[in-house]
């Protein structure tokens, strides 16, 4: 769980607790209970890490709204700054698979 703030009108931010589904250097996907329209500015806040982006899409699925946000220019995420415990590193899975095959 992380905090997302969405600017629903100028200088007014609405706060959500969300499930972070995916994150990359340029954007993130998260699940939220209420829709956040495309074009809305969002802040993703994870402990002492914060990044600002813009919602690109919001799609309802069975359990909630899945929101894709692109980080603003100059705003980037890196594993060294914040790595959610529940996310899986595909590179680690590939490395483990290679080790298993060679054993």
CATH fold title = Thrombin, subunit H
Structural class, judged by helices and strands? Answer: mainly beta
CATH architecture: Beta Barrel
Q: Count the strands?
A: 6
Average pLDDT:
82
Radius of gyration: 15 Å
Q: Low-confidence spans: pLDDT under 50, at least 5 residues? A: none
Please report the distance between the alpha carbons of the first and last residues: 37 Å
Helix content: 10-25%
**Strand-and-helix sequence, N→C?**
EEEEEEH
Q: What CATH first level would be assigned?
A: Mainly Beta
Strand order of the largest sheet: 1-2-3-6-5-4
Counting structural domains, the number is 1
Strand content: over 45%
Work out the helix count.
Answer: 1
Q: Could you give a short account of the major beta sheet?
A: 6 strands, antiparallel, barrel
Tell the overall outline: globular
Report the oligomer: single chain
Can you summarize this structure?
13% of the residues lie in helices and 51% in strands.
Description:
- This protein has 103 residues and is mainly β.
- The chain has a single domain, classed as Beta Barrel (Thrombin, subunit H).
- Helix content is 13%, strand content 51%.
- The chain has 1 helix and 6 strands, in the order E-E-E-E-E-E-H.
- It has one helix at 90-102; strands spanning 2-9, 12-23, 27-32, 41-46, 49-61, 64-71.
- A 6-stranded antiparallel barrel has the order 1-2-3-6-5-4.
- A hairpin with a 2-residue loop joins strand 4 and strand 5 (49-61).
- The mean pLDDT is 82.
Key words describing this protein structure:
single chain; 103 residues; mainly beta; Thrombin, subunit H; six-stranded antiparallel beta barrel; 6 strands; globular
